[in-house]
């Protein structure tokens, strides 16, 4: 069994290397990637769209304009946010039915307050999406302290402190229960190692606090260790969350894939997004057995930027690019991604978060102009 797996791994590693003679970039651009679709894959894809709040409407408008200009075969079906604390069961059921209507959802940022009928955690539970991914990488044209960063964070998204089991034992004494299960820990570890294998990644760092939370985080570590044995070519390491934060601040290039329980993933996901330029730079996604939700990596609703029109749509557009690859539309994904990178690298149009004074609409128009 291991020999078969190792043969497959060697083939994938070899395929990922540059074995052809060096060519100029101009000539390389003329080459195309072979993509063999199934019959009917060219049909228009239906995607549920949630505008979200704060800067959300600016971001979703930007993606829709770019998709229209690039003639992407995707039809968006809008699911409006309902801002009310008390909604009837019928309205809640209708919204739930819409969430289940399509397998893929593009979601603008949503805060986890009580004014919305659906927040991030409720959507995750409703769709049973358990893997939350943030891809933080260096983009030329975005000035940052650290260079050459390429980190994929994979966060368990269904339990931990987010199990929301809290109660008041006595007046002024609150107890919160952290839930870690073997089944969920094995599931997310399997996803992380499978992702590493298929993406030609070399190392997985499991982040924990098992020195203090010996049972909860210890169970998470045991599951990761068990799965790691099946993938001998992928380097496995463990790191306490405190040391992880320090190493991210001093040497983030040392990380490849990070595997974390829910709360640590939420915090460190925002850290790595900040390292590469901020909430408007790093894309993200949520993956389950059936459903996939794509959103910016740092779940920051940007309420302070609402109605200013100055949000950076880069992270959200790149999340939509990830969605296109997921839908089997790689050409459109590469076309839009290259245009985003070109727009950032030429530094003509820049939103305030990356040193400019332009609006979301200006940035969007420039991306459309740069479409190849």
TrEMBL record:
Matching InterPro entries: IsoPropMal-DH-like_dom (IPR024084)
Entry annotated with the keyword Protease: no
GO cellular component annotations of the record: mitochondrion
A GO term for molecular function: isocitrate dehydrogenase (NAD+) activity
This protein's record includes keyword Translocase: no
Pfam families in the record: Iso_dh
Chain ranges of the Isopropylmalate dehydrogenase-like domain: 46-367
Signal peptide bounds: none
Protein's GO biological process: isocitrate metabolic process; tricarboxylic acid cycle
Sorted UniProt keywords: Tricarboxylic acid cycle
Recorded family membership: Belongs to the isocitrate and isopropylmalate dehydrogenases family.
PANTHER family: DECARBOXYLATING DEHYDROGENASES-ISOCITRATE, ISOPROPYLMALATE, TARTRATE, ISOCITRATE DEHYDROGENASE [NAD] SUBUNIT BETA, MITOCHONDRIAL
Protein name, as recorded: Isopropylmalate dehydrogenase-like domain-containing protein
């Amino acid at each position: 069994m291991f020999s078969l797996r190792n043969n497959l791994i060697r083939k994938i590693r070899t395929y990922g290397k540059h074995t052809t003679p060096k060519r100029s970039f101009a000539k390389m651009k003329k080459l195309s990637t072979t993509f063999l679709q199934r019959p009917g894959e060219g049909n228009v894809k239906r995607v549920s769209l949630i505008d979200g709040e704060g800067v959300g409407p600016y971001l979703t408008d930007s993606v829709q304009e770019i998709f229209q200009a690039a003639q992407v075969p995707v039809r968006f079906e809008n699911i409006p946010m309902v801002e009310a604390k008390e909604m009837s069961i019928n309205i809640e059921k209708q919204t739930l039915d819409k969430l289940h209507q399509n397998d893929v959802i593009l979601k603008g940022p949503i805060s986890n307050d009580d004014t919305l009928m659906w927040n991030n955690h409720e959507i995750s539970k409703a769709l049973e999406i358990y893997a939350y991914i943030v891809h933080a990488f260096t983009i030329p044209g975005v000035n940052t302290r650290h260079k050459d960063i390429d980190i994929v964070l994979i966060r368990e998204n269904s339990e931990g402190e987010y199990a929301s089991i809290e109660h008041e034992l006595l007046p002024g004494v609150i107890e919160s229960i952290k839930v870690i299960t073997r089944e969920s820990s094995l599931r997310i570890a399997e996803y992380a190692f499978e992702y590493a294998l298929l993406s030609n990644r070399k190392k997985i760092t499991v982040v924990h606090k098992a020195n203090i939370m010996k049972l909860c985080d210890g169970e998470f570590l045991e599951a990761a260790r068990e799965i790691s044995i099946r993938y001998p070519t992928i380097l496995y390491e463990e790191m306490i969350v405190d040391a992880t934060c320090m190493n991210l601040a001093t040497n983030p290039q040392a990380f490849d894939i990070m595997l974390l329980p829910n709360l640590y993933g939420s915090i460190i996901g925002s850290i790595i997004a900040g390292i590469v330029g901020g909430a408007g730079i790093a894309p993200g996604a949520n993956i389950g057995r059936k459903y996939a939700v794509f959103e910016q990596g740092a779940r920051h609703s940007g309420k302070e930027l609402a109605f200013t029109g100055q949000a950076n749509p880069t992270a959200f557009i790149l999340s939509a690019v990830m969605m296109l690859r997921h839908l089997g539309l790689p050409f459109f994904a590469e076309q839009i991604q290259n245009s985003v990178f070109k727009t950032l690298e030429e530094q003509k149009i820049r939103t305030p978060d990356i040193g400019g004074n332009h609006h979301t609409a200006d940035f969007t128009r420039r991306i459309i102009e740069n479409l190849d």
